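Appendix B, example 12.
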Amino acid sequence: MSLPFFILSRFIKSNRNSHFISLLSVFTISGISLGVCVLIISLSVITGFEDMIKEKVVGFNSHIIISGFGQRKLAENLLVENKIKSVLNSDISEMQKFISQKAIYSFKDFSDGIEILAFEKKDEFLKNSIISGEKSAPDNNKIIIGKKLADKLNINTGDRFTVFLIDTETLSQLNRDFKIKQFIVSGIFETNFAQYDDMKCFIGWGTARTFFDMQNQISGYNIKLKNLDQLNFLSEKLQGQLNYPYFVRTIFQQYQNIFTWIDLQKKPIPLILGLIAIVAVFNIIGTILMIILEKFTDIGILISIGTKRIDIIKIFLLQGLSLSAIGIIAGNILAAILIFLQTQFNIISLPGEIYFLSKVPLEINMKIFAIVSVVTFLFSILSSVIPSYIASKINVIKAVRFN
């Protein structure tokens, strides 16, 4: 064992007899561990929010959405489809036609607005989101509704669900036209994304064409790309090629308010990280200085018998690093436990109307754990150097006389 490690081990053993130093060390370790834990959980929440919202939004939409200006219906056009494929070329992963219409539902004494969607092809994301009822795509007079809407209306699979479709062209007229259709609830889906679980309903492709009078028309195209690196470039290129009445948007443009909100949550992160680092720095500096004061005479004796000043620096540097290492490890363990409990038992729920999601999305992301731990440890090294250097400059005569 090297001299600095040996002396450090003796100091640590003697510190146990000093209640003040022991208590101060506990506070230092607790402060570091709590700071690390809070920062890991904060970053995990923000990252989880972004990942889950992207997953839900892209799942029911796509990376690029092509629709008509002013929500107008688009004629099915093979030439347009071929042009889209030629522009995107090898970047395209999937293209699907969709039909979308605003409507009003009626169930018992309740009525409100909804959006009804239909996809030309089977949608795997919808299938995987169904928690009750049939997993297959709805056909004939069947409809799939969100869990939030089902809970609000106390609807179960097999119940009848009435939909009113108002013709927007006659909306301002007194004798406006509207259609009524009664559906059977065949399934209930849950995404934990409030905007979807409360507002969106799904019907079959053939049913949508008939009910919406869109036999040779569609609402637009959902396009998924293999790589998002050129998302903005490709969307602008598509808009330039298609022109009016086609309106091309990326998923980030369509849901700009959500992603802007997420970006806003990221802005305080450097400040939080800085505050936690400052707390760690002052805790370690204060603790090591108190240990130096406690061991003032011992340090003087060590220097007087020939201990190198660099070894004195190493002793207290190791003391600070040991405190920070224990705090960082404890913070990581505490954060992992809290994240596990939240993911398994959903201890904290959220009002979906405000936060878009109905539960706190957390996952154990090793990258976040590593970044927080490394940054905290680096600040701990810097904070340990200052008091360690002070200890090495102690005057031997004054130290030996110190009582």
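The two ends are 30 Å apart (CA to CA). Residues 27 and 283 are 8 Å apart (CA to CA).
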